[in-house]
Design goal:
This protein is mainly α. The chain contains 19 helices and no strands. It has a single domain, classed as Amino acid/polyamine transporter I (Up-down Bundle). The structure holds phenylalanine (PHE).
C-alpha cells in the first residue's frame, strides 16, 4: 500500500501532460454546460466576463494548483498537510474531495444522456423528426427512470474501470488521439451551423455584448463556469500536478491547457447558437440545449448520421477524460491518506458517488418535485459545486500559494529550479497575492448576496 506513495505513477511525455490536463479541462463543461449557461445569462456580455476570468483568475489558479501538487507529490489533502503541517489548510483539500463527489454525481447524469444519444445516433433515431419532436424525445427520455439511470451507471463503471488501472497509458494515449479528433469535429459542426440560413442572429447573440443582462449573480456564474471548465478549485490539478515531471514548464502547460479549453468552449458556442436561432429554438432552454439543438443540425447536413455518431462518441470520451480526473481526486485521497488499495478506493468512491448520482438523474423524473431553493437535486448540486465550492477553493488555493508558501519555494518549483526563465513570475505573484483573491472574494460575496456593490 505504501508503495503507492513512493512509486507514484506519472505522465510519460510533455504532450501526455497536455493531453491529460486538457482531457480533464475539456469535457461536458465546454460543450454541454458552456452553451447553456451563456444562453441563460445573456450571451455576449457573459462571454466577455468569462474570458476575463479565464485570464485573470483561471490561469493563475491552474498554475498554483500544478505548483502545489508537483511540489508535494501528493493528493490534495496530503499536499496541504505536507506543505503546511499542523495547520487547517488540509481542509481545503477535503473540500475538494467533497466537491468531487458532487460534481461527479451530476456529471454522470449528463454523461449518461450522452450515451443515450450515442445509442440514438446508431439507431438513426433523429431522422425525419421536427425540432419539436426532437425536443419532446429528449424531454421524455430524461424524465424516465430505467434508461437514464442505466446509462449513468454504465458511464460510472467505465470511469471506475479506467481509474482502477492507474494513471495509465490507455487514457494518456487515447486522449492524444481523441482530443484532436474532437477538435476537428467541432470545427466542422461550427462551420455547418454558421452556414445555416438565419445563423447571423446566433452569432450576434454569442458575440454582441448586451450588458443590461449582467448582474451580480451572472458575474458569479461566469466565474463558476470558468472554474468548472478549467477543472480548477477542487484539487484535480493538484492531483495531476503531482504526476507531472519535475522539468515540465508549468507556466506553458497552464497557458496551453487554458487556451485549448477556451477555444473549444467558443467553438461549441459557434456550433450551437446559430443553429438555435435558425431552428427557432430558445437559447435559454437549459440543460437540454445541446441534446435538442445538435440533432437538428445533424439532420440538416450531408453525412449527418456519421457526424452525429462521431460527435456523441467523442463527447462521451471528452466526458470520460474529465470524469476520471474527478474520480482520481477522491481515489488518490483514499489511497494515500486512508491507506486503501487503489481498487478498493475506486470501488468505494464510485459506488457512493453513483448513489448520489442516481438522485441527480431521477430529479428530472420521479423526483422532479423535490425542490431546494428553486433548484431540483441536480441543479442544487451543480450550483453549489460550480458557483460556491470551486470559487471558494480557487480563492483559498491562490491565497495559499501567494501568502503561505515561501516565495522561493514557489519560484523554484515553477521554474524547475531555474531551468525555465519565467518572465511572468512577478506578475503571477502579484495576481495570486492580490488581484485574484480580491476579485474572487468580491465576485463571490456579491454573487451570493452578502455584499451589495
Ligand atoms: N472541466 C471539466 C469539464 O469541463 C469538468 C471538471 C470540473 C473536471 C472540475 C474536473 C474538476 O467538463
Amino acid at each position: 500500500m505504501m508503495a503507492d506513495l513512493n512509486n507514484r505513477d506519472s505522465f510519460g511525455s510533455k504532450f501526455g501532460v497536455l493531453a491529460a490536463a486538457a482531457g480533464s479541462a475539456v469535457g461536458l463543461g465546454n460543450i454541454w454546460r458552456f452553451p447553456y449557461v451563456v444562453g441563460e445569462n445573456g450571451g455576449g456580455a457573459f462571454l466577455i466576463i468569462y474570458l476575463f476570468f479565464i485570464i485573470v483568475i483561471g490561469i493563475p489558479v491552474m498554475l498554483s494548483e500544478f505548483t502545489i501538487g508537483r511540489k508535494a507529490q501528493l493528493n490534495p489533502v496530503g499536499a496541504f498537510k505536507k506543505i503546511a503541517p499542523n495547520t487547517q489548510w488540509h481542509l481545503v483539500g477535503l473540500m475538494g474531495v467533497g466537491a468531487a463527489f458532487m460534481i461527479l454525481a451530476f456529471y454522470g447524469t449528463i454523461a449518461g444522456w450522452t450515451l443515450e444519444y450515442v445509442y440514438c445516433s446508431i439507431t438513426n433515431a433523429f431522422a425525419d423528426k421536427t425540432p419539436d419532436q426532437l425536443a419532446g424525445m429528449f424531454d421524455n427520455f430524461k424524465a424516465g427512470t430505467f434508461r437514464p439511470v442505466l446509462w449513468q451507471l454504465i458511464f460510472m463503471g467505465l470511469t471506475a474501470w479506467i481509474v482502477i488501472a492507474g494513471v495509465q497509458k490507455g487514457i494518456e494515449k487515447s486522449a492524444k488521439i481523441l482530443m484532436p479528433l474532437l477538435f476537428v469535429i467541432i470545427i466542422i459542426l461550427a462551420v455547418r451551423s454558421v452556414t445555416l440560413p438565419g445563423a447571423k442572429e446566433g452569432l450576434a447573440f454569442l458575440f454582441k455584448p448586451d450588458f443590461s443582462k449582467i448582474n451580480a449573480g451572472v458575474i458569479l456564474k461566469a466565474l463558476g463556469q470558468a472554474a468548472f471548465s478549467l477543472s480548477i478549485g477542487m484539487g484535480t490539478l493538484i492531483t495531476y500536478g503531482s504526476y507531472i515531471k519535475k522539468d515540465n514548464n508549468l507556466v506553458n502547460t497552464a497557458i496551453q491547457v487554458s487556451a485549448a479549453d477556451t477555444l473549444i468552449a467558443i467553438l461549441a458556442g459557434v456550433a450551437i447558437f446559430p443553429a438555435v436561432f435558425a431552428f427557432n429554438l430558445q437559447p435559454d432552454a437549459g440543460e437540454g440545449l445541446v441534446f435538442i439543438v445538435l440533432p437538428n443540425i445533424f439532420q440538416q447536413m450531408p453525412g449527418g448520421y456519421i457526424f452525429s455518431l462521431l460527435f456523441f462518441v467523442l463527447l462521451t470520451v471528452a466526458a470520460l477524460t474529465s470524469s476520471i480526473s474527478v474520480l482520481e481526486v477522491v481515489v488518490a485521497y483514499f489511497v494515500e491518506q486512508l491507506n486503501m488499495t487503489r481498487k478498493k478506493a475506486t470501488i468505494i468512491a464510485s459506488i457512493s458517488i453513483s448513489i448520489i448520482g442516481i438522485f441527480c438523474t431521477l430529479s428530472w423524473g420521479v423526483f422532479k418535485n423535490v425542490s431546494i431553493f428553486n433548484y431540483n437535486i441536480f441543479g442544487i448540486l451543480e450550483y453549489i459545486a460550480a458557483n460556491i465550492l470551486l470559487p471558494l477553493g480557487a480563492l483559498l488555493i491562490v491565497f495559499f500559494v501567494g501568502w503561505i508558501m515561501k516565495r522561493k519555494i514557489v519560484k523554484d518549483e515553477i521554474s524547475s529550479y531555474g531551468l525555465h526563465k519565467n518572465r511572468i513570475f512577478n506578475i503571477f505573484m502579484l495576481i495570486i497575492k492580490f488581484i485574484a483573491p480580491i476579485a474572487i472574494a468580491l465576485v463571490f460575496l456579491n454573487g451570493i448576496g452578502i455584499l451589495k456593490l
